Automatic annotation (TrEMBL):
One of its GO terms (cellular component) is membrane. Keywords: Membrane, Transmembrane, Transmembrane helix. The keyword Membrane applies. Pfam families: CCB3_YggT (PF02325). Belongs to the YggT family. The keyword ATP-binding does not apply. This is YggT family protein. The lineage of its organism: Bacteria, Bacillati, Bacillota, Bacilli, Bacillales. The chain crosses the membrane at residues 12-30, 53-74. It comes from Heyndrickxia oleronia.
Length: 86
């Protein structure tokens, strides 16, 4: 059980890093590169869920920030559920 929780927590952390890299790539217009397109296919389905409900403020899209916060909360929740079960 501990191995599964550890793998899930690491996957959440890696996915958060991928979202951050994808955001930085959008600032530098690098999303058209091959790695940018791969990150787009990975990140956009998740980010699109937040973009439906959180409108951009001017030119700033804050939905990735909320998406990362939700991932962190899921990570904390998963940790707590695991510690309650042992």
């Amino acid at each position: 059980m501990a191995l599964i929780v550890t793998i899930l927590l690491e996957a959440i952390k890696i996915y958060s890093y991928i979202i951050i890299i994808y955001i930085f790539m959008s600032w530098f217009n690098a999303q058209q590169s091959s790695i940018g397109q791969i990150f787009g296919r990975i990140c956009e389905p998740y980010l699109e869920q937040f973009r439906r409900f959180i409108p951009p403020i001017g030119m700033i899209d804050i939905s990735p920030i909320v998406a990362i916060i939700v991932l962190r909360l899921a990570s904390y929740g998963l940790s707590q559920i695991y510690y309650w079960t042992i």
